[in-house]
Design a protein that fits this description.
The chain is 47% helix and 9% strand. The chain is mainly alpha-helical and 70 residues long. The relative contact order is 0.23. It is globular. It has a two-stranded antiparallel sheet.
């Protein structure tokens, strides 16, 4: 799964977004291969039940935090 980020609207780079995912709870580690293109990539083969919901929750939290700081 590839999530393209609007870095300008978020006022946050894909790398910064990735770091927020890693620092959070649970710690989420997307592939970094698309970071230079402003995107996060998640390998669905390694996901377990409930992981997708946790990733979605953390992405929403980070976006909400970025919007509140803008």
């Amino acid at each position: 799964v590839r999530i393209a980020l609007d870095e300008q609207a978020l006022e946050m780079s894909a790398n910064e977004f990735c770091l927020e995912l890693k620092r959070g709870s649970p710690s989420i580690h997307p592939s970094e291969r698309e970071l230079p293109n402003g995107a996060l990539v998640f390998n669905t083969f390694s996901l377990q039940d409930g992981d997708a919901q946790q990733i979605a929750r953390r992405v929403r939290e980070i976006v909400a935090k970025a919007r509140s700081m803008a």
